[in-house]
Amino acid sequence: MSQRQLHLNAFLLTSGHHVAAWRHPDAQADAGLNFAHFKRLAQTAERGKFDGVFFADGVAVWDYPAEVIGRSGQIGQFEPLTLLSALSTVTEHIGLIATASTTYNEPYHLARKFASIDHLSGGRAGWNLVTSATDAEARNFNREAHLDHAVRYERAREFYNVVTALWDSWDDDAFIRDKQSGQFFDATRLHPTHHKGEHFSVRGPLNIPRPVQGHPVVVQAGSSEAGRELAAQTAEVIFTAQQTLEDAQAFYADVKSRLARYGRTRDALKILPGISPIIGRTEAEAQDKYAGLQALIDPHIGVALLSGQLGFDLSAYPLDGPLPEVPETNGHKSRRALVIDLARRDGLTIRQLALRVASARGHWTVVGTPTAIADQLELWFREGGADGFNVMPPVLPTGLDDFVDLVVPELQRRGLFRTEYQGTTLREHLGLPRPASRHARPQAIAA
Amino acid sequence: MSQRQLHLNAFLLTSGHHVAAWRHPDAQADAGLNFAHFKRLAQTAERGKFDGVFFADGVAVWDYPAEVIGRSGQIGQFEPLTLLSALSTVTEHIGLIATASTTYNEPYHLARKFASIDHLSGGRAGWNLVTSATDAEARNFNREAHLDHAVRYERAREFYNVVTALWDSWDDDAFIRDKQSGQFFDATRLHPTHHKGEHFSVRGPLNIPRPVQGHPVVVQAGSSEAGRELAAQTAEVIFTAQQTLEDAQAFYADVKSRLARYGRTRDALKILPGISPIIGRTEAEAQDKYAGLQALIDPHIGVALLSGQLGFDLSAYPLDGPLPEVPETNGHKSRRALVIDLARRDGLTIRQLALRVASARGHWTVVGTPTAIADQLELWFREGGADGFNVMPPVLPTGLDDFVDLVVPELQRRGLFRTEYQGTTLREHLGLPRPASRHARPQAIAA
């Protein structure tokens, strides 16, 4: 396979990404706490030779209005690091990526947990590094309001520095374990971190050997100016929400152009836009599926979700009127801009925008046959919009089954996607090099 | 089985509790990162009908002297909550208990992770609540020195209050998940925590439904005055180190007598002393095993370990001289007192004390045949010294195999221990009631 290959990631969200997914006849309404469900999904994605599975996260119950909150099916689910650890035992090849915030965690705990999952899984862990931008989360961690955007990103950068330094605490060959001599490890190959910075003081070393992958794969999803710059410096995969090829190309070109200033090649960072595929064996079947799903949306839920994305309460505005001017907030800037652009571009009412956003939270939704969907993926991939995709099935498990059974074979026929795993680690699936330790001796660097 | 039953817990520590375990021919030297090893141990303990398996924890590499540290085989292992999550998928009945510190964690994260493990395992999670008492740990979490004993315990008590309140965020019947009506949960059965205290402000609610057990089982191991009082108020299981039946009886009577002042019955808290059994089919075989293990100890390691337990560096004192006066420290008080008492009582030199402590870190070590060991366990159990035992095999996996194959059947023959699991949760194995939510409505309390 000399042809450039695309990368596929399965973003698994309870009963699916569509806001009303849990009400669909195919859905497991109790998906959030159903381990058999997630086991099946991870095994299906592995059968489809996906690079990884991915779990989002937040550390609060969102502040939706009282009449709306009880109708949201995406509340109350497994904590992602415990779920990832459990999935490591029922899968063999697929990467295991989870979100964890730099805002309300300590770097020692996170470095250690991801290292542990990397060891449990034989080198399949990935960390989606995010900042937390809601007051609901702040209030669970001794604050009244969340941190300013700039401070969150400063903290995130320092957090990243500490975590990667902790992962390098031990040289790869530090552990000798020679029963005869009694030498368990070589203490000269152990490196305390001695970090003292603005946000953290962490002496180290980490109390777990260097991860199988050197460093678990670092994923990011921020698209603001600060988010792009942090990603260009530190991320190896970006998940991004892009609605059109043109926007995707602009984002792709911008982020890739930033890599050189950090001494990184264009290949060192893979850009994976989200896609929510609604798949039918015929175009009509696909459109029917989509219509059936949209019909399940309660408009109150849709508007509440939209308000959450904008950081601005729309419940007092007429449902069938235009989107009003939305003031700047201190929340997630990039998601907000995406949604506003979508409304302006397509001239949508609040109701129409709410329905569009509800189907995959502002991500690219493609309704069509397997061939039509593969055409779109190939186009974005070949035309500088993507290195691969973060697949967000509207309903689980059937949406993932459809993608694996119908779209993956089409991509494979076109020579765009692997038919077998070539490596054993997530890093190898993604074509990313294993990072040398910052303490590596000259011969280790040369090796 | 109308007879009172004892409880058994398997304390799993890398290649075993003996400090030189990893050098033993039976040991897995790489045990700390060997999931197959832990899977086998958990399944063996489950075959032996143990109540639970247990993992200790600390959040640092200990500050041993440079010439000693590389010879310690208990450094560099899986993080316990990730390991517990993985083990939940390869076991069906046995309880899964891990240690997590109240000193350097946030209650929201811990409440959530233990709730998640409780859901993953169908109600088998237990939390060993500890305080962190080393400067090595403090330095990984933005401090130069660890917190004072009194402050640690104040923080621990508040931490417990917040965690248990978070576990009660959702009523047991809050999630309706009615696809037809679109009602996912009943928002009137959701209770924010609104905690504002000395150490934490946590609004809640927790973003995961109430645990299967109501609350995961709360375990503690502190034996100081503050530790006993906190346990009497909050713990459901105590692990304790006791060297003699007399000491065990005194501890047992003292802790049980404290329960009434918190409105708790004597049965609400199970006391499990640690025992490190060295099992031979004959007395001579057992003694040979013990001698063989002790011969593997490097005296430098032994003295370093002893120094760590005492919080006082003994390396400058003559190996074959007496234990000097050891000054008070701000560390773990109870473990220190146990070791000093042992030296004074038996008139041990530093070398002798180091060897004794090295075999099971100051825990009760019993060398003998299965019958002799069962006799000891029965004696402590019947004579008011224990409700059961925390079994600490000197070498793993063989030490656990021996206990399950040789000692458990003897206890079963005497009618002291279950031959099959009767319940499905750790709480049921331990004979502990499922706690009602603090928000339970009258009819729920009566049920």
The gist of it:
The structure is a homodimer of 447-residue chains. Chain A is an alpha/beta fold and 447 residues long. Chain A has helices spanning 35-47, 66-69, 80-88, 107-120, 135-138, 149-167, 225-234, 245-259, 283-295, 299-310, 333-346, 350-360, 370-382, 398-413, 426-429, 442-446, and strands at 7-11, 52-55, 95-101, 125-130, 175-178, 183-185, 195-196, 201-202, 217-220, 237-240, 270-279, 364-368, 388-391.
> Tally the helices of chain A: what do you get?
16
In quaternary terms, these chains amount to homodimer
What is the averaged pLDDT score of chain A?
Answer: 93
Total number of distinct structural domains of chain A:
1
* Total strands of chain A: 13
* Helix fraction bin of chain A: 25-40%
Distance between the termini of chain A: 26 Å
- Low-pLDDT stretches of chain A are none
Q: Which two chains share the most extensive interface?
A: A-B, 75 and 77 residues
Secondary-structure-based class of chain A equals alpha/beta
Shape of chain A: globular
Q: How is the largest sheet of chain A built, in terms of strand order?
A: 1-2-3-4-9-10-11-13
Rg measurement of chain A, Å: 22 Å
* Residue fraction in strands of chain A: 5-15%
SSE string of chain A, helix = H, strand = E? EHEHHEHEHHEEEEEHEHEHHHHEHEHHH
The CATH fourth-level homologous superfamily of chain A: Luciferase-like domain
What's the CATH first level of chain A? Alpha Beta
**What is the fold-level CATH name, i.e. the topology of chain A?**
TIM Barrel
Please give the largest β-sheet of chain A.
Answer: 8 strands, parallel, barrel
CATH architectural grouping of chain A: Alpha-Beta Barrel
